[in-house]
Amino acid sequence: MRLRVAQDIFLVRQLGREVARAVGLETQDQTRMATALSEVGRVLLAAGSDTVVAFTVEPYGVPALKVVLAHPAPGEAGRLTEQLQQVGRLVDTMEVDDGGTGTVVRMARRLPPGAPRLTPGRMEEIRAGLAQHVPGSPLDELAVQNQQLIAALDEVRAQRDDLARLNAELEETNRGVMALYHQLSEELEETNRGVVALYAELDEKSVQLRAASEAKSRFLANVSHELRAPVTAIIGLGRLLTDSASDELTDEQRRQVELIRTSASDLLTLVNGLLDLAKAEAGRIEPNWSEVDLKAMFGQLRGTLRPLATRPEVDFVVDEPGVPVLRSDEVLLAQVLRNLLTNALKFTASGSVRLSVHAAGDDAEFVVADTGTGIPPELHERIFEEFYQVPGSMPVSGRGTGLGLPYARRLAGILGGGLWVDSVPGEGSTFTLRLPVAS
């Protein structure tokens, strides 16, 4: 259609609303499109000359209703862009430029997802319907505008009421949140006070525990040191009494003296264990780091412990080391392995006791495996407690003090590693000592 006189503005508005309704735009979008058309038409009509208005549908991408207004007067794009700045808010896109024959205004509004499909047949129906459209009078259009304005005001009022309600709910929620925040703050403050008091109590208990541990270590060290001399003297006197150069003893006297010497030897072993454990707890053992030749050490252990492996039912095997050299304290390492092997030989009646070592990443794993009585799973950690012995366990040879394994674990920690056990009752035990190859 053409826009020539003021009456045509009403017609453009009516047709724009009808086209928007026919292609499936919602009511509010119909009003926006009609209002934008009437405002653009008013501005173009004020500039003089006829204006051609064309309605098209862009079917590609997101479907949209597009309106093109062609004004024959060139060079108006800049002025019209400024005047129509507010109109652009009513549509999705609006462009004003100078075409080949004048100024062109393009406006578009996207169709909603639920809009009916605009097939060629549907487009023909819309064109036929618009051709039969009877223009209404200005009063009719004014009445329609008033209805639209009333509907918009009702919607604005409803939105304002909803906003007021939401603000009231938000305010109530904020009050609840603030009350909860204050409550949580008070509870947190009370909890913090309790935690601070608990930490203070723990610090006090820690100091007391450390003092008790130091006192125990001093007591053990002092008592062990004081007992060593008389116990050694008893052993020496027993040896003198049974010496061939001394007066002949009766069989009963010799048996009694041997009992005294055996008891004194056991007591000396216990005293030495207590003294070693006290030194380890007091942190007085400093490793002497050096390159340890494991092949030589294994040979020394094989020779030292061979006298304990005298039963033909038990094979005492020391494998060739899979790790030839590592950096550690040779004396402390040998003491740990000697304790483990001695313990295994004591509780193995038949089968084998085997010592081996292999690489495990950057560490070396020493394994002492036996086929002895075994240890229940619930006691795997308790055997590393001082003076604890597995109930019902009867050593095949010698007697234990319950200090060898705790001392061995402490030495393993001093050497930078760890010691643990894997055992099944009736099948045997496997003690694993893991140490870094390079300390």
UniProtKB/TrEMBL annotation:
Keywords: Coiled coil, Kinase, Phosphoprotein, Transferase, Two-component regulatory system. It is an enzyme of class 2 (transferase). Residues 222-439 form the Histidine kinase domain. GO terms for cellular component: plasma membrane. Signal peptide: none annotated. Pfam families: HATPase_c (PF02518), HisKA (PF00512). Transmembrane segments: none annotated. The lineage of its organism: Bacteria, Bacillati, Actinomycetota, Actinomycetes, Micromonosporales. InterPro entries: HATPase_C_sf (IPR036890), HATPase_dom (IPR003594), His_kinase_dom (IPR005467), HisK_dim/P_dom (IPR003661), HisK_dim/P_sf (IPR036097), Sensor_HK_Regulatory (IPR050736), Sig_transdc_His_kin-like_C (IPR004358). Its main location: membrane. It catalyses: ATP + protein L-histidine = ADP + protein N-phospho-L-histidine. GO terms for molecular function: phosphorelay sensor kinase activity. It comes from Actinoplanes aureus. Its EC number is 2.7.13.3. This is histidine kinase. It is found in: Cell membrane. PROSITE patterns: HIS_KIN. PANTHER family: HISTIDINE KINASE (PTHR43711:SF31), TWO-COMPONENT HISTIDINE KINASE (PTHR43711). Residues 139-187 form a coiled coil.
